[in-house]
Amino acid sequence: MAEEQKEKVAKTQKMADPVAASIDVATQQMIKRAQDLAIDTVFDRAVTMRPCNIGIQGTCCKNCAMGPCRLPLPKAGIEGEDTRKGLCGATANTVAARNFARMVAAGSAAHSDHGRSVAEVFMSVARKETEDYKIKDPGKLLAIAPNFDVATTVEVDGEVLDRDLDEIALEVAEKALNEWGKAEGELYYLKRAPEPLYERWKKLGVLPRNIDREVVDIMHRTHMGVDQDYKNIVKQCTRAALADGWGGSMLATDLQDAMFGAPSPLQSEANLGIMKEDHVNIIIHGHEPILSEMIVAAAQSQEMIDYAKSKGARGIQLGGICCTGNEILQRHGVPPAGTFLQQELAIITGACDAMVVDVQCVFQNLANVAKCFHTKLVTTHPMAKMEQDNVVHIEFDEHHAMEDARRIVKMAIDNFENREQELMIPKQKAVQIAGFGVESIEYHLGGTFRGSYYTLNDNIINGRVRGVAGVVGCNNARTRHNEAHITIIKELIKNDVLVLSTGCNGIACAMHGLLTPETAAVYCGPGLAEVCETVGIPPVLHLGSCVDNSRILLAATEVVKAGGLGRDLRDLPAAGSAPEWMSEKAISIGQYFVASGVYTIFGHHLPVEGAPVFRDYLFDGLEKIYGGMWDLEPDPIKHAQKMIAHIDKKRRELGIDKARERVLMDMADRQRLESV
Q: What is the pLDDT of residues 400-432, one digit of tens each?
């Protein structure tokens, strides 16, 4: 380890208490190891660096050089008129709304730019410009083509024939890429929403025009001296967020499924214990699966396995961090090594031969930690480099994808024999069943013969399943790692609420053993436990990465289509949650769920407390407009209880608040079901 690093950390007066920092034993062990080695991690930095009291309230404006203008709440609270103003006269509501909007813009840009990258590779596939990628799931391509008004059949001499798949792919690619910058019209995917929801967006004037324009619009209107009406700013927030959830993210998910295959349930493991002492360990971290798909293929090739054995390793162990990890988990069963907060810890095991990163949620401190070990840190994206001199940059090019992947894997293998530090791989890992999606859920509910969301609806109506919750999002070092995620979900499933999970929440659930069908008998209420046992699913369904929140939107839409639970997403006994949110992407996700009619509650804090009028507009006013609303509750039990209370409210409004008696069906009853 570099002596200057040791000296620097040794001067740190405060360090994290490992047990107070995380509920995960493996994480606790690695925090302690890092401290023993004088390596600072995010957990220690969270102790030594406190957040700005005014910034956390959302009322610090630095959008021009006359600032920063800081507008703290008066100590005794606001009595009467709020007279706080920045130098330009901007009120606390304007400042908080602008800051909130810029978070939505950044989050939407991040997710949607991911989608653009996928669309560009999809275009290369359609044009036959790359031999390394192909359309693995033509059924998915044919399923999404009509959403772009792309015909899948053609009439020739009165006979309907299937169109050539390559022609369909090219037309879909052209229309998909155009969604980022078309000059007129609206996004194609908006009409995938239930009709009443689409019509509401249209009436309110929030239909996104194109993805890029809505982000630029926010940045313009939040420039000094432009939009000064917090309600009008939030209206544009909604356009940009919808462009993410029903645009860039949904496009990313669909095009990835078409190229790499739609997920289906599979068994894997999770946590740092997946790393192996006698294997070459490669950790893939970030959010774009384009390169990671090739790394999986390269690492599984006999050529690379034989090369690893020639260097003294028994094989190659891949592991994931964050959403790139979720993507390769969903399609290949590659086990996640951990969540966002565990990225430094994977290197601190001493067994990480290479960590390969792309974009989003990547700590710059990884380079400092890697200096203390033999680990090769590889950046791969042109917009995501690091300044440290020990970082290797191998810019990924989809036209030479396998060549780049082999180069990275070979580098990791060559590094295996350079291990110097004593290894410490935690033993903790847990089995999980992941790989769920809209299609696979439908299959589980009825198979190929009667696959339908009607089965789920029927069990919601009869009360066995109380409702559905989407629990998603990051970890945050300002909270105890994984505690809120797991506490909330256990409280929900105990009360018969089926949970859909994505992102680091899904990894956290896997680490703590909540992603197996056997979980239901231990943690669930009797109704949900019975349904899980009958269908053979876990009570928490892992739907993938953060962009795959679009799967939750589409699953909810399928529930509406199945009937019996209203005509709109706002009617459903459903709620959304981000217990330990950290990223600006979470704010964009929250806003598009709210605008889609979903009660959405965040944990820890929201940067709106310094502007009570603006806060109340988000927490109350938006429900009158969209049917969804924001809420905040740091306490995880109260957080879950608020979600359950909202679900119960929707059950009462639907008239299904009393459980329905079981009915034995005869053949006539079953025939009526077929016609639903």
A: 999 999 999 999 999 999 998 899 999 999 999
The residues near 134 (Cβ < 8 Å, ≥ 6 apart) are 125, 259
Mean pLDDT to the nearest integer, 452-466: 94
Q: Please choose, from the candidates 57, 18, 23, the residue with its C-alpha nearest in 3D space to the C-alpha of residue 609.
A: 57
Tell me how far apart the alpha carbons of residues 271 and 286 are, in angstroms, rounded to a whole number.
Answer: 16
DSSP conformational letter for 246? I
The secondary structure of 118-130 as a DSSP string is HHHHHHHHHTT--
The Cα-based distances of 243 to 112, 145, 433 in angstroms read 8, 19, 31
Q: Per-domain residue ranges for the chain? A: 92-260, 272-418, 432-657+664-674
| CB-neighbour burial class of residue 601 (10 A; exposed 0-12, middle 13-18, buried 19+) | buried
Phi, psi of 22 (to 5 degrees): -155, 150
CATH architecture of 432-657+664-674: 3-Layer(aba) Sandwich (3.40)
DSSP state letter for 500: E
- Closest C-alpha among 257, 174, 309, 223 to residue 554: 257
CB atoms within 10 A of CB 28: 21
Q: Is CATH 1.20.1270.30 the right assignment for the domain spanning 92-260?
A: yes
One fold for both 272-418 and 432-657+664-674? yes
Is residue 398 very low, low, confident or very high in pLDDT (cuts 50, 70, 90)?
confident
- Which residue, among 649, 646, 669, 645, has the nearest Cα to 657 in the 3D structure? 649
Residue with structure tokens 């919601």?
460
What CATH class does 272-418 carry?
alpha beta
Confidence of residue 675 (pLDDT cuts 50, 70, 90): very low
Three-state SS letters, 68-110: CEECCCCCCCCCCCCCCECCCCCEHHHHHHHHHHHHHHHHHHH
The answer to whether the beta carbons of residues 143 and 630 sit under 8 Å apart is no
**DSSP for residue 340:** G
For tokens 């209206």, name the residue.
Answer: 235
pLDDT tens sequence across 25-80: 999 999 999 999 999 999 999 999 999 999 999 999 999 999 999 999 886 555 56
